[in-house]
Amino acid sequence: MPDSVPGHAPAPSGTPAPPAGGRPRLRQPFPLAAFHPRLLDSLRDYNRALFFKDLAAGLTVGVVALPLAMAFAIASGMPPQAGLFTAIIAGFLIAALGGSPVQIGGPAGAFIVIVYGIVARYGVANLLIATILAGGLLFAMGLFRLGTLIRFIPVAIVIGFTNGIAVLIMVSQIADFLGLQTGKLPGNFLSQMRVLGRALPTVSWPTVALAVSSLVVVAGWSRLALLAGKRWRPVSTIVANPASPPDAHGRLGRALAMVPGTVIALVLATAANGLLHLPVETIGTRFGGIPQGLPPFALPQLSWQLVQQLVAPTLTIALLGAIESLLCARVADSLIDDRHDPNQELMAQGIANIVTPFFGGLPATGTIARTVTNVRSGGRTPVAGMIHAATLMLIMLAAAPLASAIPLATLAAILLYVAWNMGEWHMFGLTHLKRYSNNYRIILLGTFVLTVVFDLTVAVQVGLVLACLFFIYRMAALTQIEAIAPAALPPAANGKPLPAGEVAAYHMTGALFFGAVNKVEALIDPRDRTQPVPAVLILDVGKLVALDTTGLDTLDALRKTLARRGGTLVICAAAAQVMSLMRRAGFLERMGTANYCDTLAAACDRAGVLLAERAERPAAG
Q: Where is this chain compositionally biased, Low complexity type (predicted)?
């Protein structure tokens, strides 16, 4: 569990205390995380002022989430109500049970291409089952304290697949943005491009005009609102002082800018479509409208054979959900100077993804844009996220019939804007790429291309393999074995210097692991019988920070090779981890405990003794 944050009570430990007066319980080898939602800590010091801040933030985020939830669902190949159900149910559960005080959960843009591909290949029913299985996996990851492992995924992989997903979202919205008659698009990028290319002659210019206008409003609303506010002067000010300048504080502009551009574009486009009866496709013409209320609880059919088929999509949903959620929580921490509980966050997300599919919902995760909006609107506790879910529920109950007139071109424009903001495009510029190593560039560009051309799972797998290989190479390069000059060796116990031809000594630094054992193997080649072998070989491992089993096996092979040729291996100054492994594996006994020394000087004394014993053998014979 992370350290407690000032002002919040520490979460209870996941390991139970020993019973009073009884024998202490054995420590669990894998202690489980305690289920302790952040909401419990927030409610202890909750007051009226915090409630009104959370209320304002929850209402604002609820309005922001409305068009996004519908747009994400439609782009994923699902009806718009699926996005609303997800935002309501998962948004409430993630806020109420999560480990971050301000994170907002719901459908996310990163899931669009994943969900679309799963629906195209496996069908909607199997998507729901895969989401339930992914939820169980996420809960298990949090329960077994695996939340911190997500931080080990390199930044280059995250940026690469995030930008790749953004490109795929943009491509998926071209048809609705241009009004193309494509039918249902295939899930593969190259196939999508071929279908879109063949459908270009069917472009609808009224749809294009509406989509471009919507995109301009979405992208430029905040600047336009601030500009209008600075130029506007209240009537009372003009009457009192006609020469007064415009309102320099821009209070009106800031108030207008608080209304999201996505909502303004949605309202204006829907009104224009209703008044002008534009020949554009709407939610009503494609989906038949949105129901006023949640659907009944439905249990999908599940079988072991089906579970085996859905392993790949389940892992993809769980991996992406964990990465997105914990990345979002870290962004939230930086905004409010807090620290989230990654394991509790994964457990909450797991529960949300288990429950939501029973109501026809999509995979859910933490969402950065809505979380940032929540913080900037004053939200400071999970209550704001719960109010955001309640706001969406009220809007759906009261205004669901109006959603039928929403143009799909406007939702496509909103998604294009969201996708553009998802990507860190500056990282792909030549100026930035030149600053990083070749390894970083290969991982970044490779993950990006594989995400676009193939899929996220392949991209992350290849990216992790490349990252591991590059890391192994760098660690192996840091492992050095340097010969110690005979003159630099301490003398033996009798005060005489050790003979250079019979004693060889080396300093080892770095880590002796499977990627660096070739450097030990190069000391003596067992195949070269003509190679001179020292009578005593000393390895000073005082600066060896880590040793793995493969490295230990290599040391044992070196010991055996020396023994076959009449030599002896002496090791000195091992660190705690190195010493522990040598002892547990029985290596010290095989080498001879007398041949391990605490210091290099003691090792030289031992070498002198071994040389003396070696000199006495012919005489004794």
A: 1-12
Q: In terms of CATH, what superfamily is 480-615?
A: STAS domain (3.30.750.24)
Kind and range of the H or E element at 121? Answer: helix 112-122
What is the percent of the chain where pLDDT is above 70? 88
In the chain, ranges of CATH 3.30.750.24 domains = 480-615
The 8-class DSSP code of residue 81 comes to H
Alpha helices in 484-599 (DSSP H): 518-521, 549-564, 576-584, 587-591
pTM of the model: 0.79
Element at 510 (helix H, strand E):
strand 503-512
User: What is the pLDDT, as a whole number, of residue 32?
Assistant: 84
Which residues neighbour 267 within 8 Å (Cβ) at sequence distance 6 or greater?
none
Handedness of CA 35, 36, 37, 40 (dihedral sign): positive
Q: Is the pLDDT of residue 255 over 80?
A: no
Better-predicted residue by pLDDT, 505 or 525: 505
Helices (H), 277-381: 283-287, 304-309, 311-336, 342-355, 368-376
Query: How many angstroms separate the CA atoms of 156 and 563, rounded?
Result: 48
CA 553/CA 462 separation, integer angstroms: 29
Q: Which residues pair with 569 in a beta bridge?
A: 537
What is the pairing mode between strands 536-547 and 105-106? Answer: unpaired
**Cα Rg, the chain, nearest whole Å:** 33
- In whole angstroms, give the CA distance from residue 576 to residue 369: 47
Which residues share a beta bridge with 145? none
pLDDT tens for 314-366 read 999 999 999 999 989 988 998 888 999 999 999 999 999 999 999 999 999 99
- Cα distance from N-terminal residue to C-terminal residue, the chain: 67
In the chain, the percentage of residues whose pLDDT exceeds 90 is 61
Residue 250, pLDDT score: 56
User: Residue 409: which of 220, 201, 213 has the closest Cα?
Assistant: 213
Residue 395 has a CB neighbour count (10 Å cut-off) of: 18
Burial (CB < 10 A; 0-12, 13-18, 19+), residue 337, is exposed
3: pLDDT strictly greater than 50: no
Tokens of 207: 């749809």
Which SS3 state, helix, strand or coil, does residue 484 take? coil
What is the length of the chain?
A: 621
List CB contacts of 298: < 8 A, sequence separation 6 or more. Answer: 358, 359, 360
Convert the pLDDT of each residue in 105-121 to its tens digit: 999 988 998 999 999 88
User: What's the pLDDT band for 1 if we cut at 50, 70, 90?
Assistant: very low
**Contact yes or no for 539/571 (Cβ under 8 A):** yes
Classify strands 503-512 and 365-366 as parallel, antiparallel or unpaired: unpaired
User: How many angstroms separate the CA atoms of 125 and 120, rounded?
Assistant: 11
- Which residues are within 8 A (CB) of 100 and not within 5 positions of it... i.e. 6 or more apart? 38, 329, 332, 333, 338, 340, 341, 345, 366
Asked if pLDDT for residue 472 goes beyond 50, the answer is yes
Higher pLDDT, 187 or 15: 187
The answer to whether 272 and 210 are in contact (CB under 8 A) is yes
What is the Cα–Cα distance from 146 to 151, expressed in whole angstroms? Answer: 10
The residue type of 47 is: N
Q: How many helices (H) does the chain have, and how many strands (E)?
A: 27, 7
